[in-house]
Amino acid sequence: NAGVMQNPRHLVRRRGQEARLRCSPMKGHSHVYWYRQLPEEGLKFMVYLQKENIIDESGMPKERFSAEFPKEGPSILRIQQVVRGDSAAYFCASSPTGDISGNTIYFGEGSWLTVV
Amino acid sequence: AQKITQTQPGMFVQEKEAVTLDCTYDTSDPSYGLFWYKQPSSGEMIFLIYQGSYDQQNATEGRYSLNFQKARKSANLVISASQLGDSAMYFCAISASGTYKYIFGTGTRLKVLA
Question: Tens digits of per-residue pLDDT, A67-85?
Answer without folding.
Answer: 999 999 999 999 999 999 9
